[in-house]
Amino acid sequence: MDLEKLQSEIAAQKLDGWLFFDHHQRDPLAYRVLGLPTSRMATRRWYYFIPTTGEPAGLEHRIERGMLASLPGEKLAYSSWTEQITGLRKLLAGRKRVAMQYSPHCAIPYVAMVDAGTIELVRSAGVEVVTSAELIQAFEARWTPEALESHLEAGRRVDRVRAAAFDLVRQRTRNHAPLQEFEVKQFVLDSFAKTGMITDHGPIVGVNANASNPHYEPGQGMSSPIRPGDFVLLDLWAKLERAGAVYYDITWTAFCGEQPSDEMRNVFAVVTGARDAAVKRVQEAVAAGRPLCGYEVDDVARGYIESRGFGSYFTHRTGHSIGQDVHGNGANMDNLETHDDRRVAPWTCFSIEPGVYLPEFGVRSEVNVFVGDQEARVTGEVQRELLLL
Question: Which of 32, 57, 66, 342 could form a disulfide with 73 if both were Cys (CB 3.0 to 4.6 A apart)?
Fold first, then answer.
């Protein structure tokens, strides 16, 4: 735990401190931010408070003493619920505004780890509880230079696997040889393993109407054939198989043949136009040093698609944070599923992936955007034209 950095970030948010709470390891964010081991189950509640200045302090149950032993500061003990309340009030004495893993109206569920009853208990100690969303982003979403390099290398490898997967589709469909979505999925997973990459699940390989299901994933017994004249979507994500590596996550689309319909071409142009407009909005704001929130990026992509008459077919957020988990804990580009008012912060990365999902086929175009200190850039290859296989 980097106490100096923690207190600096807390002060920057104009808070009196950050209160951590857990029971039965419900809050993995707390363990990661504090650097706590997860080998011991927390069967009783513990609290740990980091003030803006001064020494932190904790509160732990007498039969689980040592839960916070690796952290600095005094550790108060309790057994009864009345002692717990007394100890909590002692931890928070003189404080007015503290952050917890809480999100008003659960607007950002990724940080809403603390139950409503505990929030009520803390408020009964006379403090205002505010969200730790921006603090979590500072410690969970910001990359190191090493993480960035792992992302760029994963991107090079994933892009090669993506090209090889489409080559497989091209060869089979042109030769009228049998091919299933599931076979392409297995080809991608085998290629990841051969090139030193891992993934948590996926990839998505969707043909025609299946491409209109944003979270479709073929499996044994649930796979469609891929034939000449079909539309194919491929969404794949992976990271290097080493500690601290971060994900690379992309979506490309293709037509199995040389003459896609005018509707396919039009929808592809609308989706990629929305993608490029959102990327441009990020790049301009970062270059000018202007604050930018995730919901604003979503507004740009969604407005572009709505102005072309396809708004009702864009059914998910524009993008998600990317980190050691493919869906990270930084700002999402979202003003649909949530109103994400977290700032787009330096040294973070996120996807921009608008989509239009018609009954017959769906188009999504996904790139990753890394924000540096003064510039933002797409980190891999960008699909400019619908692939013709």
Answer: 57
CA dihedral defined by 143, 379, 315, 308, rounded to 10 degrees? 140
pLDDT in tens, 329-368: 999 999 999 999 999 999 999 999 999 999 999 999 999 9
**CATH classification number, 142-388, choose in 3.90.230.10, 3.30.43.10, 3.30.70.940, 1.10.630.10:** 3.90.230.10
pLDDT in tens, 249-308: 999 999 999 999 999 999 999 999 999 999 999 999 999 999 999 999 999 999 999 999
Report the distance separating Cα 58 and Cα 205, nearest Å.
49
| 118 Cβ contact partners less than 8 Å away, ≥ 6 residues apart | 21
221 band by pLDDT with thresholds 50, 70 and 90: confident
- Is the CB of residue 19 less than 8 Å from the CB of residue 58? no
Indicate the pLDDT class of residue 41, thresholds 50, 70 and 90. confident
Nearest to 100 by CA among 85, 121, 78, 76: 121
Assigned CATH class of 3-140:
alpha beta
Question: Does the CA dihedral 155-377-371-317 come out positive or negative?
Answer: negative
Place of tokens 């004495």: 93
| Beta pairing class for 355-357 and 376-378 | unpaired
Side chain identity, residue 88: L
Residue 201 CB partners (closer than 8 Å, separation 6+): 217
Query: Nearest-CA neighbor of 136 among 294, 29, 4?
Result: 29
For 359, the token pair is 């009954």
